[in-house]
């Protein structure tokens, strides 16, 4: 029941919030805070009770549509637990970050809660139909969050986001149906280790690849991302970068690798090439940006390339690294979007040329932005380094062409270039006109950043705080790949 | 022996205490880092005493490690390894660190962010100590990068000005170019040996020459960045934009020597390669000469010292390339003391003269006796004059080159020694002799002079420890051989003499002006820093920025254009379909016209219309589907 509670508690919250009278924003705000906070507590309870050595845990299973082999099936293992924690934590932070939301606040908080239902559900579902329902459910509130509470080009951005990801998930649906027709079940766990025919695997992998690649996003399927990020309100950007992108890479690790291991190996060189290109291309584009949010958006393309690099390697190091980048990117990019949002609230601009000298005028905001930047560029001791380094180790160890790994390693340098050039212009120097006289962060704003800072340091200094969950689960996937 | 772990932890804790404080509280708490580094110094001396009388490199007197990452069957460790080399480095780092911090109390006392300065200095010290104590290459690399952060923060300490801001970025990125190599070297090492631990990769693993070459050249590339060797030396002179005592610690004595330390640690792999040793030697000797020549044309006193550091680090590299680990590490140590001494002295001089330009200085000797005396000791050591420390370590390096048969490098090393002595004289005579150009020259305060005195005393006597040092590292030591010692002294003497002729107060026997006019192209090339910076700026930085802009244009015109184009075509198709619907199909079934047309209009609106319609449809269908499943299931 615990996992169901984690998934559906926000749904109840969303319904209640939607029913709150429009002029009682405070109620909706507090309701959303309490619901997401309770969810965090429940998830922490799961984390504490989690047995790292065992496989799928807290499993809930009920027959749903026996004629079609569909069941209500939830469970958590070392791959999903870090994502679940991130999803619950960022949801709470997103709510608190939106404290001053005054446009249709009740609907807004209902949407945030509905989004959490989908996100938690995606990471816990073990039945394909259930998985698909949650996957698509995520789109709806995110579409409205961008389209209603977004910036000037919100309509274009939201429709683009919606159609683009819908385009991807259609292919995923095809893959799911093909798997069902082949195996007669929608149960993900039952499809593992069946030794599906090689050609069949290849085509199904192709379908899943398109579905997940849009979500990650892998270059050249990425252009929805910058628009969606730039137009989305801060909280939506945090969840978009922190969680929604990870749904794609999670899909690769949860579904494509264990169920289609043979195809995964065949596809690995191609994915490695795209991953390395994404890393360098995203980094170069981030360097060219003049808008802070767009810079962070393109940096996400680059960082998610490292996740794909690790996944394609199929090694213990690479997959642990991929999961580490997923977690770290969620935390660090969350921080970056939050701080950029806080600066925007004060200066009403996100243009890099307009904002400078933050560290002199608002030392807390400037210092934390610099901290997040260094975590993002992969400074050892902070979380970003862990995954970046491990994916490079794994990729080098694997059979993928070494040239792509070298290109990916150059991405580490390029990351330092775009990040520090931003820091130099925005954080350092003398305060610009827009920055003069703005107040530093409030207690509420600091409070939502502190847990993220703590996670960045904990994971960065003691890698096993994260790897102890992922490593045993990764070992099982690597064994499946080796057997294929 | 558990106290060894406390050596890096004390300054780390000091940083942890200071970092979260408010600026005012931090400024009041600068005694915390000073106390921490003094504590580390005492513990380091105790550790050094414990290792005495020494033994072989890698022979642990104390070892401790803990797992911080588990990957399948592989464990990654954080650990400390106390062996002769790390014991030497501990003392060097904490001694210079303590001297610099005490000095900084005086030097930085008017700065409004002095607390932050001390916090970063403390983090740096912790990282450098974690680096020298590391028992594996991964931890070494991680500490290496944290030092890079501290270097960045201190170079850009006065970030309100443009020059420090630019220099800090340049330093971080240039060293990171090298780090790409280092990281790939680690990847090759891990893929080959399955470990980063010294015990495995240095002592327990047989390297095939090809992989050994790959690993060592990649490591060397990292070291070239960090230790400012040609062609990645360009960041170090600019790094002088930071506070001078920070330059003394980071950009003279310790961090820039980390590359040398890395090569020294990885020397068994370099030796398994063979080729890598030759490359190291070529890099080192090139840098020694280029750095020396560039130092000879600078007018900024700190830049002279910066290029001098580059040149002297080159000395250490070719020493290691010749297999002379004792000579290399000994020069690292003597250089750390005399160069930090020179930097601290330069700080006093800059404060007193209110300029960094040597052409605007002169006659400091009369008013600033302590500074003059200590600076002179440092200068003579740098020039390689007996009995000061630089003489001994340079002599050891020359001896290694001679006995190993590297005669060409030996000759080039002598040439570099000649240039070194020349620019030392050029600096010394310009600053301390001649007419006074600054009114109200005054000697510095005691907290600045005492650390300089300590470093000067060490520089004066430590050379005599040369044979014992070799024994401490497990090698046989010897006193200098007369032939080499006399040759190097003669060369250094000639260099000093030439400098005296050109820049001495009364002499000025040689007028440098006609030289500049006759060999103008040489002088211009040196004054333009041999065009390294211009080349990088134009061919790499500018071209990358252009490429990034071009890719950005490509992204939103071509790639996104394709996406939007597909969308437009889709919509056009839908419109055509709608027209077809209206005129062909509707026309054919004209009989039932009204009803169908009304329905058709509704469908069309859904097809091409607002996304909300899709939304409602999809959510509705989803809810119905779920309800149906639930009902059927129950």
Could you characterize what this model shows?
- The complex is a heterodimer of chains A (484) and B (634).
- Chain A is mainly alpha-helical.
- Chain A has a domain of 225 residues.
- Helix content of chain A is 75%, strand content 3%.
- Chain A is built from 18 helices and two strands.
- A two-stranded antiparallel ribbon of chain A has the order 1-2.
- Chain A starts with a helix and ends with a helix.
- Chain B is mostly helical and 634 residues long.
- In chain B, strand 1 and strand 2 form a beta hairpin.
- In chain B, helix 7 packs antiparallel against helix 9 and helix 9 runs parallel beside helix 14.
- The N and C termini of chain B lie far apart (69 Å).
- In chain B, 53% of the residues are buried.
- The chains are: A mainly alpha (484), B mainly alpha (634).
- Chains A and B meet through strand 1, helix 5, helix 6, helix 10 and helix 12 of A and strand 1, helix 6, helix 7, helix 26 and helix 28 of B.
- Spatially, the strands of the biggest sheet of chain A line up as 1-2
Structural class of chain A: mainly alpha
DSSP summary, beta strand count of chain A: 2
Quickly count the helices of chain A: 18
Strand order, largest beta sheet of chain B: 1-2
Span of the ends, CA to CA of chain A: 35 Å
Mean pLDDT of chain B: 88
The SSE string of chain B, one letter per element, is: HHHEEHHHHHHHHHHHHHHHHHHHHHHHHH
